[in-house]
Write the structure tokens for this entry.
Amino acid sequence: MVNLGSIDKIPLGQGICFIVEGKEIAIFRPRDGGLFAVQNKCPHRQGSLAEGVCDQNIVICPYHAHKFNLHTGMGSEGDEKIKVYQIKEEKGEILIEV
Amino acid sequence: MTHQKQKLVVIGNGMAGARVIEEILKRNRDFFSITLFGAEPYGNYNRIFLSNVLNGTQKAVDTIMNPLVWYQENAITLHTGLKAIKIDRQKKMVLGMPVKKGRVPYDRAATGLPDENLVSVPYDKIIIATGSAPFIPLIANYGVPGTFAFRTLDECAHIEAYAKSCHKAVVIGGGLLGLEAARGLMTHDVQVTVIEAASQLMGAQLDEESGRLLKSTIEAMGIKVLCSMVTEEIKTTEGKITNLVFKDGSTLETDMVVVSAGIRPLTDIAENSGLDIKRGILCNDQMQTNDSNIFAVGECVEHRGQLYGLVAPIWEQAGVLADVITKTNPRATYTGSKLGTKLKVMGVELVSLGEKNPRDERDEVIVYREPKRGIYQKLIIRDDQLVGAILLGAVEAGDYLMRLFKEGGFLPVKRTELLFGSKDVSSLSNVMDMPDSAQICNCNGVSKGQIHDAILNQGCSSVSKVGACNKAGLGCGSCKGLIAQLIEGYAGEVGYDPSEHYYVPDIPLEKSQLIAVIKEKKIKSVSDTFKILGDGPEHAPSKVGLASLLHSIWNQEYEDERDARFINDRVHANIQRDGTFSVVPRIYGGVTTADELIRIGTVAQKYNVPMVKITGGQRIDLLGVKKENLPHIWKDLGIPSGHAYTKAVRTVKSCVGTDFCRYGLGDSIRLAQEIERRFQGIESPHKIKMAVAGCPRNCSEAYVKDVGIVTVEGGKWEIYIGGAAGGCVRKGDLLVIVDTHEEVLKYVGRFIQYYREHAKYMERTYGFVERIGINRLQSILVQDELGICNRLDADIQKASDVYRDPWKQEAELPVYPQQFKGSELVKVLKEVVNNG
């Protein structure tokens, strides 16, 4: 697991993008709890999902509003799916499995 | 056989009176020559929609069921504003008198002295359809200014006018109409309290538990409810209502009182003419009174000891009466109706059938509760027959239960199937299994077969199209769900969705209701909105719309949560297809200076901006800027934000007007700059692009802007609204012509504020103006029909006063540390974490 540092880096309710071993990963910290890590680039037109509006279930791509489930990676548009990474918070630090 | 037409006089031009005439004409157009007395000054209108008129979602004129030409076409002599007061049964004459000005038609003293302006009409047969009058309980001082009943279009208009000067209103009566009146009042910016004398709301339709549940649902919408309170007196000071005094001595402050405490049959004419009455006019199974030439129908009738106040039984009575009176079927009988009703109370769906409580312990009672979602369902079964049902909050089973209740039939052994269907039969099969002759729309008498025809042969693919074709669903609207199911069943798709009226998808409230509740509960952040009005957690699809609305309601008091904003509004720049941003500085009216251009050029060089482009809105766009550079660029530019990234007032284009143009009639540049400085950056449901043209040649394209100003000869300015020249091209509608810049600013601001308050999120002005209609907008914004113009003017001024340039504010100090940061590159050290 890789330690990405303090959870406080991520503003509450938002996501930010980390580049870990060449991979762009969007990490979200919803207001209602939980911590999620998914591939940052939207499969549709490569929008940065980290800039999207999220809740504890989904993120909405800022480009064309395609939605993705943060738990499963399933997209709202038929054949789209994004990769989901294992992530957890421990002692205020973000740990991710890449 | 030649037939001398008989003379029929119908007394009462309400829903029952007009309906019975329709039924008669359907059977035989030549049987009668018809005269109709209507005490109200209008044609026949649909009273069911009064509360929609009060809350402004429907215009009074749209409730008219039969326009005046219908009466002409069918050779009906219509006397409006004339009240029939007596039947002279010896001379066979009906006597009528004009309703006095300012009197409500159902008032006993509505007409003048006995032989003043008497009108007399001879008859062979009479149908009395006088309906009912509102019941006013004994309350001291009822009748002072500010007290109202809620029964007619005129009363609706009076309530609306009076509410403008009020902060608090009370509705006395917690039945269906009282709650609807409360809903209507809520949209007029008054705090509403409903007073009910009984221990629960809607005692006619609900049992105690569902009454309590409805109460809490309604209270969550911002209406206060007081049950078990009997009003004794209305207190006034200097002619103004100050408070109510209750029987228990407590008091409640209020500025106005609307009484909606039930109805009583209007029987004056029967009384004056010696007909038998008890609670209503007594009729036999052929709807005949004790005079064989005089019939009655509707709410004024008492039949087998029963009064009816719902449309369905009254339609049945009208059908039987028409059969009998035209001799189409002289033996037709009306034997009473089983009372079942589908309603929508303040957006909450409700089905109530028959009995509300078990008669004794042998009755089977089945109850399903889901309090968190406001759902309560109860069935009462006696001798294996459904004798009562209450469905509150979830009514999918309603149509199925309604049929079982009215027609009888076997109940499934597993009672759960009554509410939730069986596993192998989908709920859809219920309506699809009905015969073609089954009536779907009870208001307008449309059968399943006719709807089937509309869907398959007329290509109707939505509920409203079916309605346009055959009137189904245009009465009370409660059958719309069934029509949608039929569309789904026959055509495989459905064009009806109640949630399309919600402001955001996850809070089940229309915009006006949502605004009222937000103000009442002082909700200032998006996360609180979900906690208080939603089901608790946040829902991403609703966050952005709520953020915009809350900001426009509370201005600086709004508690900003950046995560609820779209990325453009988090960083005040427009995201581009490669993840970079565009920067568009404000250039008022499209006029810049050499100094500004040099600064813009210097910035473009310094930050290696890949493209500098002149925009369609007469601005300069710096494209391809990295997020990290945004605050530095803003600082170097020293020019305010042009708001090209957000749903707000954006650009005001101009032509060179009288400054240089040979044709210019008005100083378009100065006016454009004034408008832009006044309204810049004000947030709205969608972007607002404007232009000012100095002459009708329209070089700045003002005719096709959200707001466009065009100078015409004589130094006058035309104000157009709702224009568009994007994906949709539409010429704006002329709102008003004015003489001065100051007036232009006033009307433009007024329109913007009204649009901010009433448009759906993401609804451009071209859709909004078409939806509301330019005539309606003129009466609201120019003639001030609703009396809200001063308030609109003050609110837009406030929004303008608190405007701050976001670039200037956030260039020095980000709102949060990561606001302008890009991706974070993580150096992976050989870090071992014990994850076992």
About this structure: The mean pLDDT of chain B is 89. The first helix of chain B runs from residue 15 to 27. The domain at 6-133+264-325 of chain B is CATH 3.50.50.60 (FAD/NAD(P)-binding domain).
